[in-house]
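Human: I'm a chemist; would you kindly supply sequence and structure tokens for a protein?

Assistant:
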Amino acid sequence: MKILSAFRILAVPLGGALSFGLFMPFISGLHLVIVGMLLGFIGSMLVGIPFLLIGDRCFPGFKARHVLSSVLQILFIYVLYSGFKPRLWIAAIAIGVVLGLLYTAFERYLVRYAARSPVPQMGKAYVFGIPLCGGSSLAVVATWAFASPSEIVPSLIFSFLVGAGIAMLVGWPVLWLTDRLLTHRLRYIVGGTVSGFLIWLLFGAPGLLPLPTGQYMNYLVDQLGPRMLTFVWFGCASGLLFTGYDALYSRFILRRGATGRQEAVEAERPAD
């Protein structure tokens, strides 16, 4: 897996969550810090990641592009949440500048680390497969199970963003370990199942009721089993999707890249 791309992309929503979590007390008080972090995470997924990709593509030599991107991200989330209230724009811009400078320093460290790392580097299309598959599987399941006919589109979008965010947090580290430890063609299904279990530990296990004395089997059947299996099946489905995604990626993108390099080498050879 391309560690550089994965961590660069993951740092964007994490930085957005941190920055807007710090900014939220200025708007609504300390009691909404968690809400601010969630808004920052989702907003940076919607705005920050496209800004990062556009900046890498169109302005690779512009050194302040991450600072500008961070400022625009936090202003976008602030306007979306509170409307046009210029009294806190200076604070928002200051937090965005600090976040952009921290991200710039973090990116430079990642570039130096990736240059020394012996781990094979895959393309961004491969890295994006995890949030795409995780978001798609959760969007389909959540919409089918919970959404009413009038809420299908909002449910799809929100569930996809939640699934993509969770997959970025958990799926990328598991993918890195899976590629290093396993070689079987179904290894991503195993990795997805492990990811589902880890997600359950993070989000499902804390909501379990206390274990009643002497009712271990009933507790296992009523509380532990169904909830844990839901997350595990979600991870397994995501791993199955990523297995197909990886097959398509290997067949078309990698083969096309290898063909292009071979044609370039042949074109550079002197004619006999």
